[in-house]
Amino acid sequence: MKTIINPPRETWASLCKRPVFEMTGLETTVREILSKVKAGGDKALYEFSEKYDGALPKDLRVSLPEIDAAGEVVPENLRNSIAVAKANIEKFHSAQIIDEPVIETSSGVRCWRKSVPVGSAGLYIPGGTAPLFSTVLMLAIPARIAGCKNIVLCTPPDRHGNINPLILYTAMIAGVTNIFRVGGAQAIAAMAYGTQTIPAVDKIFGPGNQYVTKAKELVQLDGIPIDMPAGPSEVLVIADETADPSFVAADLLSQAEHGPDSQVVMVTDNPEMIPRVKKQIDEQINQLPRKEIALKSLENSLMVQLKSPEECMDFSNLYAPEHLIISVSDPAALAGKVQNAGSVFLGKYSCESAGDYATGTNHTLPTNGFARSYSGISTDSFMKKISFQEVTPAGLNIIGPPVELMAAAEQLNGHKNAITIRLKSLKNV
Amino acid sequence: MKTIINPPRETWASLCKRPVFEMTGLETTVREILSKVKAGGDKALYEFSEKYDGALPKDLRVSLPEIDAAGEVVPENLRNSIAVAKANIEKFHSAQIIDEPVIETSSGVRCWRKSVPVGSAGLYIPGGTAPLFSTVLMLAIPARIAGCKNIVLCTPPDRHGNINPLILYTAMIAGVTNIFRVGGAQAIAAMAYGTQTIPAVDKIFGPGNQYVTKAKELVQLDGIPIDMPAGPSEVLVIADETADPSFVAADLLSQAEHGPDSQVVMVTDNPEMIPRVKKQIDEQINQLPRKEIALKSLENSLMVQLKSPEECMDFSNLYAPEHLIISVSDPAALAGKVQNAGSVFLGKYSCESAGDYATGTNHTLPTNGFARSYSGISTDSFMKKISFQEVTPAGLNIIGPPVELMAAAEQLNGHKNAITIRLKSLKNV
After folding, report:
1. Does domain A26-101+119-221 have CATH number 1.10.10.200?
2. Active-site residue numbers of B?
3. What is the pTM of this model?
């Protein structure tokens, strides 16, 4: 980890730049996958499954008996743990449905907004060695709470054509049974354009590797909305003298183990904190099965010493971290100054991994500095807000004449006439 | 206008397809403009201004005296009309700031979300013959209510390098004074990447021609967020026997005059409505200065007769119109069935042009079927929601053990350890 003591402010922007990992030829490969799926449908999906997953699944759709059977192999203590996470995620995401008031803007002019679910949501869950069933909960629960009628889930099969039972089990308890064994850019293509078996959806959600991310970018250009742009995961910890170096080290490592491109940052105003945390990292990292990944991630990472907690927060706001842990004596005071972050963890017992699974907040968050303008996934992500207005004759008598004048000034006489013809008819009543 | 009587449901999807107008070479041209501005900064902007606007502005930034002077040439009755619109837009958009409750998901685990403004917003206002000062209000007012610290407005100059005084006046009364005379794709590039004079912004908003739209798409791929994808404007009117054919015709024409690529649709269950509205259109269109534009737009447009108001609403939900006017005997009942629309107008006196200017709702709305998953612009568009969580030791004792199990099941032992190390320290207290 790079250590920087009291960097001058004019250097902060360059410190906050994320490491860039670019694959050459990625866009060409993904464009080809998208067009093959668009043209070939299911047939193309089977071909890509053989090529990329080494699998020849009998059926793209996972059958209901297969889904039901999955629960039986999940141990009871894990089922109970998942139930705790599910209940908390449901509580927090249900509270996000808020009825907005009707506003009478002028007498006789009533305006309001109504949240209406997106008709169909496509969820992508990556495969690989670790089954990310927590992400199933984080996507499927708000989709169901929002009221999406059709929820489709795509995830890649293993070499035998099977889906990890934990993915199937969590999907089932979250109410999702339209599950398809297809992964990568081809899964995004299938949900964007539809195939014989997989229905096209109204919006696509979920994390993935660079192929998946690029596919999401490209289908968005084709008019299919996606949740948000993606990038490697990251955490920033603000630690003052009251922080526990072993906790901070554990938090940095929990992020570093995600992938070699993850970035972890500690910012502190305490001169002793950096050496203490480094010592803890050196000790703890040896216990981690994913040590090699964590070591690579730490190479891209930063420890920065600044002059005060407020300066640490200024740095964090410039960095705009996906996860921000505030481990200081008065975390609430500092939390009030957060301008840019995905999800914020207050105090030394609020570790990121608690929020990754079970506090109830969503763990699908903006990375790569996107927290400056994007929100994490929430129930809102599965809905759109439609505005409504009702103008009575009395209301039209008030706002009609101003609209006529403004429309004429914009040289839109058709707009003006739609008012004039109504005002005239009211005079004749 | 095409007239279709009782089309079978399986043909609806093709009826709902928007006409496509594609410019060849557009992407290449726009990519070149973006890279020239990125490399050349202000110098490139002056060159493009000379090339595309035929203007050689002395200064990109509009000076404060210039802005102040604009108000003096706006007639008093128009200033008063703008004040009515501004007050209503402010009322409706202020009500969109809602404090969300803190949720205790498990005992000792508190979660909440907070809306925080995007730091800087870039507003694009098209030029051309008609000064779209109403769009200035629709973008600048919610940006200011959200609390954006920096609001930048770009709009193209006329041949003399001047900006229409109505644009300057509405910007000023909406609190925007960072105004730059630059238009087209080059304006989007300037706000995305920054130049010597024009600061880079966190998010870009506003309508524009195909160059502007393509530029917004491309900078989004570079990580600069935009409000929403764009397309030609459109209206769908549902009319039953209680609708006034002259009102319906005026509403269709008010949309048709926007541009030759606008689409207007009427859906009715009344066999007499189509001929009546057509007759009214033929009469009213002759009064319109923009008759030629409206005629071209009507060529792409539709009149559909269906069997019931409910069937009309089904058609509308499939079409997902930007504007939906419900002119039926019980508009509220039908409004409850709206699934996909940008903004909805209830009853015969609620014409679209009222909402375009002054009901208080926003007129920047999803077109081209994007209303299936996008919302129109609101105060939310200028904010992001950050999630917060605070886990007490008691809370960690509840959710910690489940998180340990789930993290282990996802093979993320670093995540597990961040919990374990804290639980151990609590036992030792």
Report:
1. no
2. 322-323
3. 0.96
